[in-house]
Amino acid sequence: MQSSGEESHSGCAYGRPVHTHDAELTEVGPGKPCGEFLRRYWHPVGLSRLVTTRPQNVRILCEDLILFRDGKGRAGLLTPRCAHRGASLYYGKVDDEGIRCCYHGWRFDVQGRCNDQPCEPDKGAAHRDKVRQPWYPVEERYGLVFAYMGPPARKPVLPRWDVLEELDEGETVLAHLTSYGAGTQDDLSEIAPWNWLQDWENIMDPHHVAVLHTSFSGAQFAPEMGIMPDVHWEYTDLGMRFIAYRNLPDGKVMERYSPCLFPNVRSVPDVYMQTGRTKRMRWCVPVDDTHHRHFNAMRVPADFNGHDGLRGRTVGDRIWADMTEAEHQEFPHDWEAQIGQGPISLHSEEHLASADKGVVMLRRLMRQQIRIVQQGGDPIGVTFDPDKALNRVGAGNYLQGTYQETKR
Amino acid sequence: MQSSGEESHSGCAYGRPVHTHDAELTEVGPGKPCGEFLRRYWHPVGLSRLVTTRPQNVRILCEDLILFRDGKGRAGLLTPRCAHRGASLYYGKVDDEGIRCCYHGWRFDVQGRCNDQPCEPDKGAAHRDKVRQPWYPVEERYGLVFAYMGPPARKPVLPRWDVLEELDEGETVLAHLTSYGAGTQDDLSEIAPWNWLQDWENIMDPHHVAVLHTSFSGAQFAPEMGIMPDVHWEYTDLGMRFIAYRNLPDGKVMERYSPCLFPNVRSVPDVYMQTGRTKRMRWCVPVDDTHHRHFNAMRVPADFNGHDGLRGRTVGDRIWADMTEAEHQEFPHDWEAQIGQGPISLHSEEHLASADKGVVMLRRLMRQQIRIVQQGGDPIGVTFDPDKALNRVGAGNYLQGTYQETKR
Amino acid sequence: MQSSGEESHSGCAYGRPVHTHDAELTEVGPGKPCGEFLRRYWHPVGLSRLVTTRPQNVRILCEDLILFRDGKGRAGLLTPRCAHRGASLYYGKVDDEGIRCCYHGWRFDVQGRCNDQPCEPDKGAAHRDKVRQPWYPVEERYGLVFAYMGPPARKPVLPRWDVLEELDEGETVLAHLTSYGAGTQDDLSEIAPWNWLQDWENIMDPHHVAVLHTSFSGAQFAPEMGIMPDVHWEYTDLGMRFIAYRNLPDGKVMERYSPCLFPNVRSVPDVYMQTGRTKRMRWCVPVDDTHHRHFNAMRVPADFNGHDGLRGRTVGDRIWADMTEAEHQEFPHDWEAQIGQGPISLHSEEHLASADKGVVMLRRLMRQQIRIVQQGGDPIGVTFDPDKALNRVGAGNYLQGTYQETKR
Asked: C119 exposed, middle or buried (CB, 10 Å; 0-12, 13-18, 19+)?
């Protein structure tokens, strides 16, 4: 045997190790470290205007649930399998007093109490209080239905966000489901088939804008977003944020304040470089370990009529879902960069560099907070005092020297 | 930390246990308790008129098999992988003497004997009797091909059913594959994607008729079927049955006799309340742990020409498969009630009540019979004496006082 | 209990054992015995003319890889997940110096060296040599891109084959992807969904031609191919071969020389019985344990314009993929015979006979060579001496007495 030269084959793929994902930060099911951490916060699970007496299936944090609104207007979130004999409440009928299973007609109110059993003597009066359909508390705000899926004794107040509370003259708040635009034309609840962390950590990574969104695919945002920024990252009392400094062609400096509001809320400053505070909030909600979806709320003029513009990204006049495979390769966007990492990225094979400092800090804070929850504590940003419910987002584009900090 | 009130969150879904199915009653593969119990009976595996020299794949009790009829008219049921080198007999050619594998031409008769090996010296005469394609015995009756898939020494006689033996003037027996109607328009062998027990135990549950089939979806059967019945359940020498008593608007009492004939045969009385003995038998045959299918035989007038009416349930003039998702939610039927329980229902989370007495009794008898088989005995309803092959079904609608019991 | 006769039920399918595949000969992933054996050879992974600056996904030997050609014409084969943070290089952009990840712009050359990191200070000059994208060496010949995926120190020379080197006047070599024809009309890289061994061992099995390709489906090749041959199998210094002798109607004897060139190369003599040496070579490349694909190279006239004729088998004027299910059953071909064996055949239930001698010998040699590799040796047919790269194929149809052996 005569080698053709081992030296010249360094780095060859043969014999490379098998790599794995970081389970502590990515797996969201009940009992999982990250799953229990996330369950200490309220999460949007539906758009208020789409929650009706017609039951809908939702999957959140690896749990399948039924979302509906009873005849008196109360939203309900129950487990789908009827406590009686397991038929799905998806086929149930909703009235003023709750949702009724199609099989034997047991009816449950929005807190899972069984208040009718039509096939039982006296409608089940003697025993039906022994039955409780598992349920989660919900509250509505900003046009979204929020659920709390954690331990009841640790239920925080549903936070308020100044961005959506302090409206300008003639503004209102609109909730919507805009996302990557990679769903079908009619699918308003696009579910992205990869782990939520890939999207969440992307927010603390402003450098990719100059590559992915500019030099690669043409300027997908304002041309000035393609200027490689100087970036400062820092922890805040709600999570962390970056400030990206860009030297504009006119000699001015644009400061871009962009926060990660734990555990999964962002408020990205306008990507067309409009100055001032942000208008938009986005929640990145894990569906399960390998899927996530987005919920949004934003200030709009009261006469806003641009729902179509909220459907997601486009190439020409087509949404992302309608691009050819070649176009996906030619004009990659967040969808391609993130789905390319796989259902759950393999963190053990990464090589992080200086531009990844924000990602490193984000993961460090997440791990710390996950462990706080494991040790019985309450994680960053939750409060149980209704007087402290208002959160200051502090996001926006500002010319140097014009930003005013507002602390929570 | 300040709790928002644990008291008000009782029954909350957080921390609920993980639930499981009852494996003893649901899993049907070889060696499984329920699988061995079911294997002590004959099961329909095909419609005689559709079993031809063109081989067809069938899956029954978790076993993949090839069903065909040889050129002399004998039905055969063999394992699909050729004993030679594993090519599928689905691509085989059938002649008077058996089925021949496409790869090297080995031919097997309906009992698996290898009677030709064209690539071997002298057609394999010296060795081919060492090869046996695994096979199951079949018999035909009522237009159905029945198979016995259990231990040879325990093979019972193929039962006869009085409902299909004692014909009225001008009647004949028709076999068909009518089922939920949720298959495609052309699929005559609809396979329902859930465990057979969900369908089987539904038969001992007459109360659901007043809800699912009446108040929920409008009267899918006779309006009188919506009257909540008084129900009496009892064990019989072939399994069990219920008698449902309904007080009709005219002051009369309708008695509805409906049996479960073990292990998987029913004879549901006419759902349009026509009086008299039943005309129909239905077998619920497990395909595997998460699928089942139906075979039917019924008395019809000799000039019956209503095959289209046997395709299954309809909404308006469309079959179940063509309904919209919203219509499935609005007009649920057995299909929705049963598929909603999942591939295999999670029995550990059920809350059974008084109307479920029939289900409780059915499961108790099944468990008892399963254990009898495990202990070496023969289960209920089997006989090895051809003179005792006739079973009395005893099903029908009768005005009070008109029912005549006929024992087996 | 009274048995209906155990005697008459011998060979019944009840209680038959669960069967398994031969893992040593079939599983091809890294570290698996057969996988390591195969990794000691070069394998085609792409068609040179289709390898461009647009990256393509390929899956070979259970490994997902990215194949591309840089702006200077060099083919590259890299792992798909960017060494930085895992985005797929499938969405990368290729230039003269390599492929650049879409997410942060890291660029890798065809040997995985990182030569740009645009978001890092000084383009990552200080640290980027610490990063290496895992890669495999490739070479191009006969219009194919070959990769070596084994241990670098054992990399053999890429073999030459006389069939493709010694051209007749006016001939050229054409590479193509013709296969079973069961892919879609536009799919030029048909991936067959079963283990490669089912196809590979089929080559040492000339008897099936007289059944599958003749008596079963009508003469799919020359009618004379239906004559049951006398077959002699023997080992060679490149693997093994058979010589099939057929007594032609005119009294002559046709000798058919057909080799297995280890580990996965064949050169089947003309199936229309044209005499002379073969024109075609085919590589059967495992995609993973349950899929394989074909690469071909053949001598053609320089003005050859028959690419359409290379698309695969046809029935009438339709390709295999467009046949009805009934036609697949009526006219089975290699596709049906092989896919019928399942994703991986169950070797423990086979009954091999005298016509399977070639299959037995092939498996024996494979097992021997697999174990040689496990014990640190080099397997049959590899050479590290460029002067010994030329392999003599020795395949063709010859009238008795006209064959001239040419040893390697």
From this structure: buried
